[in-house]
Amino acid sequence: MKYIAVSVLLIGSIIFPVMPVEGQTQQVIGGPSLSGSIQDNRIEPSAQENIAVTISNSGYVIQSGPSQFVQRVNTARNVQATIKESQINAPISVDTGTVTLGALQSGSIQQATFSLETGGNLEPGTYEIPIEIDYSYTNIANYEVSQSGYSNIEYVDRSGSKTIDIEVVVEERPRFTLDTPENNQLSVGDSDRFNFSVSNTGNERAQDISIQLSSQSPTIQFGEKSGSQSNDVTGQTDRGSQTSAFIPSLSPGEVYNASVKVSSTTSSTSGQYPIQATVNYERPNGISGSSDPITIGGSIQREQQFALSDASSNLRVGEEGTLTATLTNQGPNTAQDVVISLQEPATGIEPDRSEFALGTLQPGASETIRFPITVADTADTGPYQFTHRVQYQNNDGTEQTSDPLNARIEVAEQRDTFAVAGVNTSLQVGSTGLVEVELTNNDESTLRNINAKAFVDDPLSASSDEAYIASLEPGETATISFDMSVTGDVPTRTHPLELDFQYQQPDGDTVLSNTYQVPITLTPAPEGGLPVFLIFGGLVVVSCIVGGVIYLRR
Question: pTM of the prediction?
Answer without folding.
Answer: 0.51
